[in-house]
Amino acid sequence: MNLQLAEVEKHQALGVKPSILTLRFDHLQQWLKEQGEPSFRASQIYQWLYEKRVTSFEEMSNLSKDLRGKLANDFTLDTLKLITSQTSSDGTIKFLFELQDGYSIETVVMRHNYGNSVCVTTQVGCRLGCTFCASTLGGLKRNLQAGEIVAQVLEAQRHMDQQDERVSSVVVMGIGEPFDNFDPLMDFLKIINHDKGLNIGARHITVSTSGVVPKIYQFADEKLQINFAVSLHAPDTETRSRLMPVNRAYPLDQLMESLDYYIEQTGRRVTFEYGLFGSVNDTSEHAKQLAKLIKNMKCHVNLIPVNEVLERDYVRTPKEQIDEFEKTLKDEGINVTVRREQGHDIDAACGQLRAKERQEETRG
Questions:
Q1: Of the listed 37, 106, 148, 155, which one is catalytic?
Q2: Is-catalytic flag, 106?
Q3: How much is the pLDDT for 340?
Q4: Annotated binding-site positions for [4Fe-4S] cluster
Q5: Domain assignment of residue 271, given as a range
Q6: Structural domain tally of the chain?
């Protein structure tokens, strides 16, 4: 039995219904076969889920009453419950959702001139302990099912439906480390990319990691044509270990070797996410060190003026210093951009809304 169908049975044994959105198209076909149903029903069910975006199995009117009953008996569609949302003056929307077990997660919709992007969460909390991130407050509670990640995109799309707009891209950069939840992540990617699913093109999907080296090799071997980003945040091991404890388990030299392997296997470039923290990693000398580290790689640097987090002590780098950092990299021949800030007037930092609204969940 495949992993996700095994997950379905595990939830059933606990008396908790798994989300139907957890099933990839081939997994759904297998489930239908086990129910004595023809495989073409999978296309019909996917159309109801991802094109018509129904909220109950009873709405699937071209299925038999018996099949609708089987679906309702084994699965749920009611995966996320909206707790609250915040809307920025620039159109950015942050949603705080409650899961079936009472835990909460964040999802963000960002509006760009090229379309609407959704940032999804992969875990309830995070174990990696990055010292600048609100997502790690309270540690890791659990991994999300693939369907709980898919549901975030669906809920964002339902919101977009009200404006007759479409989710055009997805970034896996919300709460949690995606590669710590690798198998559900892979299923999520295949579901939203499937032409009968949400049909979001591979090159409109971005996955980010903090640097879980063994999974980078595994991800490279998948040879997916999606965009790949790495949270780097420092050009040397000492500074990176202070910012990101994951660097102690997978040091910078090992990370860079794994990225060389990724580029070799996929032919795709790596985007380095580099948050600028005042007086920590933002000097011209840091920029020169960074340029030396990545000089010969197929890569791009995305400089991020950090959002201040009340629970953390880091401060924003002044704009003139950001400009100088960018110029230094460009002078060294590095492709670099400064991320356009969004949601600056709401709880925009990853995990910040959850930390404010769910204090009992995010205490250490």
A1: 106
A2: yes
A3: 77
A4: 126, 130, 133
A5: 81-359
A6: 2
